[in-house]
Design a protein that fits this description.
heterodimer, A: 307 residues, mainly alpha, MetI-like fold, two-stranded antiparallel ribbon, flat, B: 289 residues, 2 domains
């Protein structure tokens, strides 16, 4: 059996070798292995990316795309004049600005605390990390209940607002921030815990012999050694939180009076409720430019820090 | 006398800085755990509280009466949740398999084969890290519509299968597999396909498991995209299904919370079984693991 297989093998290989020289063969085999990924990448990423740019320059007709009219940069001009866009941008920045520092702070406390040997640390780790495996709809609906009439948040913090936080222009966004921190902090906690565990313990022993207190050890040893992991947490969570959608969609529908409408929510409404696809594509592109800018800025900052 | 000694040493210990520090540490860590646990407790508590208690309003931590009627209803009488779980499981499994297959193939091609242009292709893939999935949804929606894939599993599986993360992780891992193994195999007349399937893949089980687990959970939990491309009850995934249940049962928190608990259960079990693997897969992404 195996000898038959071997002969067939040799024959195919030799014919294959006659047809192409070595480097062509390597190229063909290489492309063959790369092809499935590249096909998906081209069709579902590169093509929509170009099509989005094209759509954003048109008044797009969804049912009959051939009837779309070219409008140049009009969609972008309209975007810059749309107060709803500026409102969504401002709300998103407000959300990111509150969420990211809280996530960094809480996940750092969790990681540093759990790095000490505690009784029950496995159970603690399970509790902190577990919200991360929940889908946003479960998270959003549970917390909408927590902040509804008769929910925990409203019961104990009710003196802060009239009615419920989700009906308050001022408190709706903080409520969404709390929800998000509960959902996401565990993920970054896991990242920071590993980073903390990678700091060599002998550095702390040496510092203790020098009489350094906990604050000095934190500032001079822990922070510098965890710098890259902390940067990762800041960058990754900023980019992720910038695309917040599910929490406002489920908890406030963007309200009250647009106070929790974020950029992706705004994009969703244009695309899938009012069906202004050309204008929506322009919003998508603007969002893309903002996020690429944020990423590029981060890479530059991280790059210069490494030198 | 001896009693006084013990008391003395106990006060000594309580005033000792290290001990105070440990007490504070336990208080903070367990206090946060309690806070983190409250939403879970409320979900469970409300799911077993009878409507008669809920409709009175008021607040309590422990329900005065218990009932598992709603659990029974969704587990036995109205099995729509099973249908959604089946849809979600099918989509997440196919997505995971597809991602592992195409990512490992291209990573193999880039690291273990030698052909012109592979560096440029890797650079383009890595650059796509900067393009967040959501910014593309409008053109992607028209594409899925043109392909006639609306309301199908494929509408959810295909669009985000070619992501950069898996390629990034696998390229790094494959690069570190020693050349010697492969050279010996080539001398034995192994084809590239056999080297990929018999040598590289088996050696990469740990990273493939970690990546697979991550992709599975990510796919299972997708929300915005399925919300856009699915509009048929029978095809809903769990994340979308629970939202429709909430909308029709707005006045029955016990129904809502039961459906949320049921929808969360599968991944909770996965997490219980693979806690360490999952946490290390998170750490791997940040390069800290």
């Amino acid at each position: 059996m195996s000898s038959v297989e071997a002969t067939t093998d040799t024959r195919t290989v030799s014919r294959w070798e006659q047809l192409f020289d070595r480097s062509t063969r390597e190229l063909l085999v290489g492309l063959l292995f790369a092809a499935p990924y590249l096909a998906l990448f081209t069709v579902f990423l590169l093509y929509p990316l170009l099509k989005g740019l094209y759509m954003s320059l048109h008044e797009w007709n969804f049912l009959e795309p051939s009837k779309s009219t070219y409008v140049g940069l009009e969609n972008y001009a309209r975007l810059l004049e749309d107060p709803a866009f500026w409102n969504a941008l401002w709300n998103t920045l407000e959300f990111v600005g509150m969420t990211v520092p809280l996530i960094v702070g809480i996940s750092l406390v969790l990681a540093l605390g759990l790095n000490k040997e505690l009784k029950g640390s496995r159970v603690l780790q399970f509790i902190y990390f577990s919200p991360y495996v929940l889908t946003v709809s479960v998270v959003g609906i549970i917390w909408a209940q927590m902040f509804a009439q008769g929910g925990v948040g409203t019961q104990y913090l009710g003196w802060l607002f009239e009615g419920t936080p989700l009906n308050s222009k001022f408190w709706a966004m903080p409520a969404i921030v709390v929800t998000t921190v509960w959902w996401q902090a565990g993920f970054y906690f896991a990242v920071l815990l590993a980073a903390r565990q990678n700091v060599p313990e002998r550095l702390y022993e040496a510092a203790r012999l020098d009489g350094a207190g906990p604050w000095r050890m934190f500032r001079d040893i822990t922070l510098p050694h965890m710098k890259n992991a902390l940067l990762f947490v800041v960058i990754a969570s900023s980019i992720f939180q910038f695309q917040v959608f599910g929490q406002p969609y489920l908890m406030t529908k963007g309200g009250p009076v647009g106070s929790t409408e974020t950029l992706v929510y705004y994009l969703y409404e244009l695309g899938f409720q009012t069906r202004e696809l050309g204008f929506g594509a322009a919003v998508g592109y603007t969002l893309l430019v903002i996020l690429v800018g944020v990423s590029a800025l981060n890479y530059v900052l991280v790059g210069t820090n490494d030198e | 006398m001896s009693n006084a000694d013990t008391t003395q040493s106990l006060t000594d210990r309580l005033t000792d800085r290290d001990t105070q520090y440990r007490i504070a540490l336990y208080a903070v860590m367990y206090g946060l755990a309690v806070v983190f646990f409250i939403p879970y407790w409320r979900m469970f508590q409300l799911s077993v509280t009878p409507m008669s208690v809920l409709s009175q309003g008021g607040f309590n931590w422990i329900p005065p009466e218990l009932t598992f009627a709603v659990w029974q209803r969704y587990l036995v009488e109205e099995p729509i949740i099973y249908q959604w779980a089946f849809n979600t499981l099918t989509i997440a499994s196919i997505t995971t398999f597809l991602v592992l297959l195409v990512d490992s193939m291209i990573a193999f091609s880039i690291t273990r084969l030698d052909w012109p242009g592979q560096g440029a292709i890797l650079a383009v893939i890595m650059a796509s890290f900067m393009i967040p999935g959501y910014v593309n949804i409008i053109p992607l929606y028209t594409l899925i519509n043109d392909l006639g894939l609306m309301n199908s599993y494929w509408a959810i599986i295909l669009p985000f299968a070619a992501g950069p993360l898996g390629v990034f992780l696998l390229v790094q891992f494959f690069r570190d597999i020693p050349e010697e193994l492969e050279e010996a195999a080539r001398l034995d007349g192994f084809s590239s396909l056999r080297i990929y399937a018999r040598i590289i893949l088996p050696l990469s089980t740990p990273i493939l498991t970690a990546l697979g687990l991550f992709v599975f959970i990510w796919s299972w939990n997708q929300f915005l995209w399925p919300l856009i491309v699915l509009n048929d009850d029978a095809l809903y995934t769990l994340p979308i299904g629970v939202v429709t249940l909430r909308d029709v049962n707005a006045l029955a928190p016990n129904v809502i919370m039961t459906s949320l608990a049921l929808a969360s259960l599968p991944l909770f079990i996965v997490f219980l079984l693979f806690q360490d693997k999952l946490i290390s897969s998170v750490q791997m992404q940040a390069g800290t693991g």
